Amino acid sequence: MTVLHQISVDLGDRSYPIVIGSELLSGGFDLSPFIAGANCLVVTNETVGPLYEAALLDSLCGRQVETLALPDGEQFKTLDTMVSILDRLTASGFSRDTTLIALGGGVVGDITGFAAACYMRGVDFIQVPTTLLAQVDSSVGGKTGVNHAAGKNLVGAFHQPRMVMIDTNTLSTLPERQMKAGLAEVIKYGAIADLEFLAWLEDNMQALLEKDAGALAHAIRRSCELKAEVVSDDEREAGRRAILNFGHTFGHAIERCQGYGDWLHGEAVAAGMVMAAELSGLPSGDVDRLRTLIETAGLPVASPDIGEEAMRDAMGMDKKVRSGQLRFVLLESLGHAVVSSDYDDAVLSRVLSSAA
Ligand code: NAD
Ligand code: GLY
What we know:
Radius of gyration: 20 Å
Structural class: alpha/beta
CATH superfamily of the largest domain: Dehydroquinate synthase-like - alpha domain
CATH class of the largest domain: Mainly Alpha
CATH architecture of the largest domain: Up-down Bundle
Number of helices: 12
Shape: globular
Distance between the termini: 44 Å
Largest sheet: 7 strands, mixed
Strand order of the largest sheet: 1-2-9-6-5-3-4
Bound molecules: nicotinamide-adenine-dinucleotide, glycine
């Protein structure tokens, strides 16, 4: 077991560490300092559980631990699934000092975090993310929730984990398509906040696709540092945190119009980032640079053929809408994002009409 990096999300007395390392699960990384009581519920899914649950349970011996495997898939990111966690907690008589442990990708993490936010008005939870997307994004920052028929992640709560444990070895079993989807969020950080990191990604994309351990550890560390800094500054998205949604207004609309689970979240965000860069009015060379990087990562660079009207309808439910006005995360330059409602509607129409 090797701990490679430790990053702090600074939120006063709710601050917590993100521990990044290899073989943390098989090496029995000690979670005790982050578990207050005797009861733990490990929430995973039917895919990840058989791969990593046993190692996690070994490290929790001596406590009253139960496990719950959710069905696998974005289509199960629903209130019903969240309630199935609450049902287990009540049936087992778990008390207020229970800790939930989310073992899986962003779907398991978001649902479990929301259950932790709701049970007895809030119990502790720990994130053990096992997809690249969850390791660089969803496990950090305390956004929890589920989808609603009217829109993605429309029901949820801000609830920070007690810690995030990232074992990079879990990526060894992650399917290639899921790796690429995670790379979309990694590219996002370079585009919105760190031009030097974007250039590093251009030089190292092949190594990342080949799951080179050193390259992955660097990409995960830098992504988590950038996310931790933004979240520490604006936990509840009063302002700046919204830049983390670069490409997501378009991406969420694509996901919603297609039905969740067709394109992966990261794939929709990838196309959405190119669309947002076009709407930003960047010099065409900069848009091309971002498009090329996204293409090199094996990700889509244009929306499927959905149509302007359907996309506009879907974007109307975006959480950044204020007083009926759409707001987008736009790039002032590569490496510097702002949230703005100052965009050219004719360019938006063109962006929405141009499909792959
Ligand atoms: P996911 O959780 O659906 O995982 C993808 C697939 O990989 C699933 O089939 C899963 O079972 C499987 N899997 C997970 N780990 C594995 C492993 N190590 N080996 C083999 N298979 C594995 O998808 P995701 O991309 O991790 O997360 C997407 C979700 O995250 C979306 O619902 C999105 O809205 C949410 N999200 C939340 C935030 C946030 O801030 N809370 C940020 C970004 C995305
Ligand atoms: N993934 C966007 C956020 O955490 O704010």
